[in-house]
Amino acid sequence: MYRRIVLLLLIALSFNVRATEGMWIPTLLEAVESDMQSFGCELSAEDIYSVNKSSLKDAIVHFGGGCTAEVISSQGLLLTNHHCGYSQIQSHSSLENDYLKNGFWAKNFGEELPNKGLTATFIVEMMDVSDALIDLAFSNPEAFEKKKAELIAERLKGSAFEEAVIRPFNYGNSYFMIITKTFSDVRLVGAPPSAVGKFGGDTDNWVWPRHTGDFSMFRIYANDKNEPAEYKENNQPYEAPRHLEVSLNGVKEGDFTMVFGFPGRTEQHLLSTQVEYVVERANPMRLAMREASLDIIDRAMRSSDKIRIQYAAKQSGISNAYKKWIGQNKGLIELKAIDQKKELEKSYVKLAEVKGLEAAELPAQINALALKNHDYQLARDGFIEWYYYGPELPSFAWGFNDVINNYEVLKEKGELEGRIAAMKAANKAFFKDYNQEIDEKIFDVLTELYVQHIRKDLQPNAFSVLQDKFKGEVKAYRQMAYKKSIFTNEKELDNMLNDLAQGNTKKWKKKLAKDPIFKIGESFVSGYYAKVRPTYNELNGEIEEKMHHYVKNMMLLFPNKTYWSDANSTLRLTYGKAEGSTPRDGIVYKSFTTADGIIEKYIPGDADFDLPADLVALLSKEDYGIYAAEDGELHVCFTGSNHTTGGNSGSPALNSKGQLIGLNFDRTWESTMSDILFDPVRCRNIMVDIRYILFIVDKYANAQRLIDEMTLVVGEELPEMEIAPLEMAK
Ligand code: ASP
Question: Which residue of the set 62, 82, 83, 643 is catalytic?
Answer without folding.
Answer: 83
